Amino acid sequence: MKEISFIKDKRKYLHGVVLAFAALAAGLFLYFYFFYHGQADGTVMVEIPKNATGREIGEMLEKKGVIRSAAVFRAMLLATGNGKALKSGYYTFRRGSTVAETIADLKNGKEEVVKITVPEGFTAVQIADVLQKA
User: Quick check: pTM over 0.70?
Assistant: First the structure.
């Protein structure tokens, strides 16, 4: 009888440890998602290619300093189901944005628009030069 009671006590202890770890992980996740802005020193332009995966996008954004954690970015995409809703394009992000702000921008297609004026009579080479400068 004492042996069975000892096993039950071990299980209660293990459940408590797992629950504490899950609560800590959830707390860190929510902190990075909603509150942590990192170092907000300017903006950065990022090109999100067509058919890029959430993992690739998260790594690009982390590398450029837009978000702090690509892992939290991917986890949030999985949790919210927004992985397929992200749109490609050129985006200007504030460095240190929250994951929530970044996902919202990518989901809404809030991309950077570049306007170019090509004077009438320009040759293809001149147009290419204008496009390259823009």
Answer: no
Give the three-class secondary structure for 45: strand
Spans of the chain below 70 pLDDT: 1-8, 32-41, 111-113, 134
The answer to whether 66 touches 12, Cβ cutoff 8 Å, is: no
Element housing 93 (H / E): strand 89-94
For residue 68, give the DSSP letter. Answer: S
Q: Kindly report, residue by residue over 82-98, the tens digit of the pLDDT.
A: 888 899 888 888 887 78
List the structure tokens of 127: 């147009």
Residue for token pair 């332009």: 45
Cα angle: 23, vertex 24, 30; to 5 degrees: 90
**Torsion on CA atoms 116, 117, 121, 124, rounded to nearest 10:** -10
* Surface-to-core class of residue 33, CB atoms within 10 Å of its CB (0-12 exposed, 13-18 middle, 19+ buried): buried
| 46: enclosing H helix or E strand | strand 43-48
Which tokens belong to 50?
Answer: 């067509």
What's the Cα-to-Cα distance from 1 to each of 11, 12, 13, 32, 106, rounded to whole Å?
16, 17, 19, 47, 59
